[in-house]
């Protein structure tokens, strides 16, 4: 009797399993977990399948691919791609879309007069191990190097960007975005710029900028009405951390006399923390203002500037400024900082300078 019941149980179990197999494809779990990698190399061909053995060739081919969460776009390291990337796609929290290099070294995107990487209206994308170069701020390029607009949960790591007239790396209306190990040098308007909608401090929010450098970003030759040549500048944003970053030798070729650039600073921003940063030997154009190390400028609220070192800047080491028509400036803390030999040239000649227009 027990043996008969056992066989009945086994038969019933097999019938249930067979029915389930008819409802759920055998590869359902595999489909859910599948991640596709698309490879690109100068030795590839856009008619191939994009595998590592048969890579695609041109970055323009990226626009023809529908990416899913967890997919990877991989550019062969140490190769120069004379092209640019425009990307609009979405990953998920556990499966971001990856744009990176593979093999030895970092891939180089030579964008010439274009933006090297544009990401817009996207979420959960990781960008890493990429070099972006433009034709130069005075040699025909009029664009930012990496431009991220209306995005959320974007992570950048090990990005080198140079040769662009606007900011080397520009964020606009972005949320929950991390910049790490970004080296922005030899650009025009700024090394790294964060912006949001005008008069809206929530335009960009929850931004983390760590271990980044902004070096030798002299100025935007086309901007004759406002400052340029900043190291790292954030505005119209909320909840921003700038930590362990460096700004040096910026601002020396701003094409105007007037308000000038600063190494690392914020304006019209709320809940900004700048800490453990180094800003030195930053400059401004001859006869212009500013050129300092750090600055909490007009409209900054509820923010902290601490544990920073400023030295040999042409302007003041630490600036507390409130320009005309800015929103109220209040509840900010500047503490535990060092200024050495700052204020060498411009009219703001001090270790710390407080000014209200």
Short description:
With 357 residues, this protein is mostly beta strands.
SSE layout:
Elements: H1 2-23, H2 28-33, E1 37-40, E2 72-76, E3 80-81, E4 85-87, E5 97-102, E6 107-112, E7 117-120, E8 123-134, E9 146-149, E10 152-162, E11 169-172, E12 175-185, E13 190-195, E14 204-210, E15 213-215, E16 230-243, E17 246-248, E18 262-275, E19 278-280, E20 292-296, E21 304-306, E22 309-311, E23 318-322, E24 333-335, E25 338-340, E26 352-356
Parallel strand pairs: 1-2, 2-5, 3-6, 4-7, 5-8, 6-8, 7-9, 8-10, 9-11, 10-12, 11-13, 12-14, 12-15, 13-16, 14-16, 15-17, 16-18, 17-19, 18-20, 18-21, 19-22, 20-23, 21-24, 22-25, 23-26
Helicity, as a percent range: under 10%
* Chain-averaged pLDDT: 91
Strand content: 35-45%
Total number of strands: 26
Amino- and carboxy-terminal Cα gap: 98 Å
Radius of gyration, taken over Cα atoms and rounded to an integer in Å: 25 Å
**What structural class do helix, strand and pairing data support?**
mainly beta
Number of helices: 2
Largest sheet: 26 strands, parallel
Order of helices and strands: HHEEEEEEEEEEEEEEEEEEEEEEEEEE
Tell me, what's the shape? elongated
Low-confidence stretches: 1-33
């Amino acid at each position: 009797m027990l043996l008969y019941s056992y066989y009945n149980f086994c038969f019933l179990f097999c019938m249930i399993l067979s029915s389930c197999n008819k409802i759920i494809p055998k590869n359902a779990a595999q489909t859910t977990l599948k991640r596709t990698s698309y490879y690109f190399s100068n030795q590839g061909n856009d008619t191939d399948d994009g595998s590592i053995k048969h890579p695609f060739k041109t970055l323009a081919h990226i626009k023809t691919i529908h990416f899913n969460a967890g997919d990877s776009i991989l550019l062969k390291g140490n190769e120069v791609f004379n092209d640019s990337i425009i990307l609009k796609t979405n990953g998920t929290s556990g499966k971001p879309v990856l744009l990176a290099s593979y093999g030895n070294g970092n891939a180089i995107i030579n964008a010439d007069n274009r933006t090297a990487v544009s990401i817009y209206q996207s979420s959960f994308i990781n960008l890493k191990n990429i070099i972006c170069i433009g034709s130069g701020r005075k040699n025909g390029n009029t664009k930012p190097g990496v431009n991220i607009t209306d995005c959320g949960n974007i992570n950048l790591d090990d990005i080198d960007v140079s040769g662009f007239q606007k900011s080397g790396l520009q964020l606009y209306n972005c949320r929950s975005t991390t910049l790490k190990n970004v080296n922005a040098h030899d650009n025009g308007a700024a090394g790294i710029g964060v912006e949001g909608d005008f008069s809206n401090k929530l335009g960009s929010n929850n931004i983390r900028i760590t271990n980044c450098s902004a070096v030798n970003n002299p100025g935007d030759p086309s901007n004759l009405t406002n400052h340029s040549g900043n190291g790292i500048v954030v505005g119209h944003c909320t909840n921003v951390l700038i930590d362990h970053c460096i700004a040096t030798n910026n601002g020396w070729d701003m094409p105007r006399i007037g308000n000038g650039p600063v190494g690392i600073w914020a304006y019209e921003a709320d809940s900004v923390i700048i800490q453990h940063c180094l800003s030195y030997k930053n400059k401004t154009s001859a006869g212009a203002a500013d050129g300092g190390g750090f600055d909490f400028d007009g409209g900054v609220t509820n923010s902290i500037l601490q544990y920073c070192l400023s030295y040999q800047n042409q302007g003041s080491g630490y600036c507390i400024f409130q320009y005309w028509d800015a929103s109220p400036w209040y509840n900010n803390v500047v503490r535990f900082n060092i200024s050495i030999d700052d204020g060498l040239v411009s009219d703001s000649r001090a270790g710390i300078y407080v000014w209200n227009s």
